[in-house]
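Student: I would love a firmer grasp of how sequence relates to backbone shape in proteins. I am handing you a single protein, as its sequence and its fold in token form. I am told such tokens are a discrete way to write the fold. I hope you can help me see how the letters and the tokens relate. Take your time, and here it is.
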Amino acid sequence: MKSILIVLLSLYMLMSSSGHAQQLSANVEQLAQQYFTLYTKREDFDSFMAFYDDNVVLEDIVYGNHIADKKALRRFFNWTDPKFSMISEHNLVLEKMIVDRYEVVATGYFPVFNYDDKPLGPWRFIIHLTFNEQGKIIHQVDWINYTPRSQFLGGDNLNKLIN
């Protein structure tokens, strides 16, 4: 009888934790959708920044940037830069998003835009976000294929694969 009770209790705990994990992933997926919707529109910078924890870390792998807090991240994104202007209706196009508990991996591209009156892009991206239990982004890793390559790096321009 005691062993049956232990088995039943173990099954209950396993089912409860599984339900919690599914709920957590659903919440993170909803937060990520809201985040990318704001990022796409590029209109409300304060609401966009509200997704980030004060101690967020952002790593831009291609550029080699390492941003260590929310104030530095605000300066890094710099949405008020007068040299930047959108050509497309959207700042980014989200093609795919995978959510696993606190982790989100998104792929897509930044459409062509103007910077300092010069067209740049489109730029393909992979963005990896990690959320904390409070629903704030605590870590972001960006892989962005910056072009024109001559201004940024050597190598092939894989952005030409965007239709």
Confidence is low (pLDDT under 50) at residues 17-21. The chain has one domain: 2-161.
